[in-house]
Design brief:
This protein is α/β, with parallel strands linked by helices and 365 residues long. It has helices spanning 27-33, 46-62, 81-94, 108-120, 134-140, 178-194, 197-204, 217-237, 252-261, 269-286, 292-304, 317-325, 354-364, and strands at residues 4-8, 15-19, 39-44, 66-71, 101-106, 127-131, 145-150, 153-160, 165-168, 337-342, 345-349.
């Protein structure tokens, strides 16, 4: 038995999220049990492939799979159609068929690109998520959002394509750079604000959130399970973001704009999302949607995680507003915001004005 198995109960494509330490080498046997196909393209980045590629490859080969590896450079700025084209070239060289599988071994960028390649190769083949970063484990690997960035905006090119399996080994987080761990905590805190106040309370009870060594194995396991449960529940209610799923974008409207205008080089995704959460919270305070106490709890928790909490003074408001107009969540020309009502409850609105954004950011510089 695995430590945790969280079902994602979708009517046309159900799958499981499996969480257990030391299971990387068992991926092949689990995929064979699920009846997944014989040829596999393993997509990773050089650093992750060096650390864990051989373990995964050996397990897949031992289970009878024919495996080829494709490595893409790490980093959000490589999340482009050019990189996906490299995956297509590797898929062609490996002779991938419609019964073949693409396996994503890496963080959110690798998972997004490999998933998009799987969604579009031969009009769609199965893929498996093997997340190696905390951000990918708690967010990107779950829910079937795949895609790449356009020069004018984040994740504008993509498809919904659910994985056949999400395979998490928390032990790989030992090698995760500290900045990446901190970045991912913004998404964990996000679940607490939008849906699960118990997560906020749990994190407030851990003395130091800023380094892997401060988390006991049970603490880390609990955060992975609760985050996966939150994401799975929302995806089950609204698989393709027709309504409710948009709450998962809390902090992302301004966060994505900030990433875009700083060319994906200055901030990690979670750092930008954390700043976007603080900005959304400040807009909520200014509009009377929630109070200063809740805003302070959110800000203090993000600071405790080692994340930036002050809005950069050198980022142009006009550039941010232009970037928001290119956001994929825009509806009828209006930017969609998710604002907090209280811990555990947010609301989707298109009523936030440019003046509201300007006033909130001015208070956070």
């Amino acid at each position: 038995m695995f430590d945790a198995v969280i079902p994602v109960k979708l009517p046309t494509h159900p799958y499981q999220i499996v969480i257990q330490g030391g299971i990387l080498g068992q991926l092949g046997s689990q995929m064979a049990t699920l009846g997944l196909g014989g040829k596999i393209l393993l997509v990773s980045n050089p650093a992750i492939a060096k650390l864990y590629g051989e373990t995964v490859l050996s397990g897949l080969t031992a289970a009878g799979f024919q495996v080829q590896i494709c490595c893409i450079p790490a980093g959000e700025r490589y999340k482009t159609l050019k990189s996906v084209s490299q995956i297509y070239d590797a898929a062609l060289a490996a002779g991938l068929e419609r019964s073949s599988v693409i396996v994503a071994l890496g963080g959110g960028v690798i998972g997004d690109m490999a998933g998009f390649a799987a969604a579009t190769w031969l009009r769609g083949i199965p893929f498996v998520q093997v997340p190696t970063s905390l951000l990918a484990m708690v967010d990107a690997s779950i829910g079937g959002k795949t895609g790449v960035n356009h020069p004018q905006g984040k994740n504008l090119i993509g498809a919904f394509h659910q994985p056949s399996l999400v395979w998490m080994d928390p032990l790989v987080l030992k090698t995760l750079p500290t900045r990446e761990l901190r970045s991912a905590l913004a998404e964990v805190i996000k679940y607490g604000v939008i849906q699960a106040p118990d997560i906020v309370e749990f994190l407030e009870g851990i003395p130091d959130l800023s380094h892997y060594r401060h988390y006991s194995p049970p603490d880390l396991h609990h955060l992975l399970v609760r985050s996966a449960e939150c994401k799975a529940w929302v995806v089950q209610q609204d698989e393709k973001e027709g309504g409710l799923r948009a709450i998962l974008n809390y902090g992302h409207t301004l966060g994505h704009a900030l990433e875009s205008v700083t060319h994906y080089r200055r901030y990690r995704h979670g750092e930008a999302v954390g700043l976007g959460m603080i900005a959304a919270g400040q807009i909520g305070v200014n509009l009377g949607w929630w109070g200063d106490t809740e805003q302070q709890r959110q800000t203090q928790l993000l600071a405790k995680a080692g994340l930036p909490t002050r809005w950069p003074s050198d980022v142009s408001l006009a550039d941010l507003l232009r970037a928001m107009q290119a956001d994929k969540k825009i509806k009828q020309g209006k930017v969609q915001f998710i604002l907090p009502r209280k811990l555990g409850q947010v609301e989707i609105t298109q009523q936030v004005t440019e003046a509201d954004v300007s006033q909130a950011l001015a208070a956070l510089v």
